Amino acid sequence: EWGADRQAFLIDLPARKFHLFAWTFYPQDLFYLTTILIISALALFLFTAVFGRVWCGFACPQTVWTEVFLWIERKIDGDRLKQMRLAQQGWTRGKLFKRSAKHGVWIAFSLWTGFTFVGYFTPVRELGGALAQFSLGPWETFWVLFYGFATYGNAGFLREQVCLYMCPYARFQSVMFDADTLVISYDQARGEPRGARPRHTEPKSQGLGACIDCTLCVQVCPTGIDIRNGLQYACIACAACVDVCNDVMDKMGYPRGLIRYTTDHELHDGRRRWLRPRVLAYGAVLALLCIGLIAAVLVRVPLAVDVAHDRGALYRETADGQIENVYTLKAMNMDRRAHTYRLRVEGLPQAILLLDGPRIAAEPGEIVTIPVRVAAPPAATRRSALHFILEAQDDPRLSQTTTSVFLSP
């Protein structure tokens, strides 16, 4: 919760506004959303250039949710060998119970995922109350079921197929790699030639490398690749092969790191470069964008003003000889509080501002439309710039200026 009236992160589509901690953004603030998306893309490029496919291995929802589903599966069905035996046996009462329990927990977790996701768009306390009373709206129900089904299908059945065939990142991430990108690699110089041997046997005495060819690294790989054949696009850098290989090295009495996080340069030349042209370029652009976004948000004025000249009559002459122009003023209060505003004009000598109402007031998120008349002596130039200045009476910092034209004969 943020304050007493809303949650800290909420995309309020019906009200057309986006709450992020202390800030509230509206469609007029598309610049900020665009900048955030650009920063996210550049951050992905930077971390990929330095750390490889670390997003896929540790932060991607598909990977995280798949790990959760696999953990549930291990808790109910047992380890890999038990799962294989269970799959081969007939439909006994025990198998039916385990299958029902596993899929029941999967479905419950998937529906909770859908509920949580919808909670970013409908206030989660309101959503939870409606769910408890069985009064969810049709759209909330649809999206909870939709994202629940997507989670159940992707994490429960498709799993690594999403990474191999559906995710575009796997196809273009290699263009951001270079010889100094941190990747998972197999040390061929140390591991070859492969071969089985008794524990605590010195490899050189057998004419072998450190790899005992147990193939456990292939068995634990979620995408089914053999990392010993070199880096492949299907590798999601989850490090499952690193962990299992280190366990084998411990049992054999060999040093760890036969499969490890390293770079191509470090693997062959023993050196690693963190700072290089592409990393410096990504970092510099990313830093400038972040600084610019923070500065723009801090100086942002939660008030939008637009003035349009009346197209029906360019100008008209009043009974007392004044030239009068008519405008339509639209003001949007993008603050979290209601405000009353005062309007004034500048740029035209002796101009008189005429409003139909005594004041301009707007609730949070409200757009008010007000007809405005401006009169000036005939001596005014035929086409003069006219500045409309709208400012809040209770906070002079909430002020915006927009420019239009004043037409006369």
Provide key terms for this protein:
single chain; 409 residues; alpha+beta; five-stranded antiparallel beta sheet; four-stranded antiparallel beta sheet; 14 helices; 42% helix; elongated
Report on this model:
It is a single chain. The two termini are 58 Å apart. The protein is elongated, with a radius of gyration of 32 Å. It contains 14 helices and 14 strands. The strands form four sheets. Strands 6, 7, 8, 10 and 12 form a five-stranded antiparallel β-sheet that branches. Strands 11-9-13-14 form a four-stranded antiparallel β-sheet, with no helix packed on it. The protein has a three-stranded antiparallel β-sheet with strand order 1-2-3, with no helix packed on it. The chain has helices at residues 30-51, 54-58, 61-77, 80-88, 93-118, 124-132, 138-158, 160-166, 169-172, 188-191, 216-220, 240-252, 264-269, 277-298, and strands at residues 9-12, 17-20, 23-25, 183-186, 259-262, 303-309, 316-317, 323-333, 339-346, 352-355, 360-362, 367-376, 383-392, 399-407. The mean pLDDT is 90. The chain is α+β, with helices and mostly antiparallel strands and 409 residues long. It is 42% helix and 20% strand.
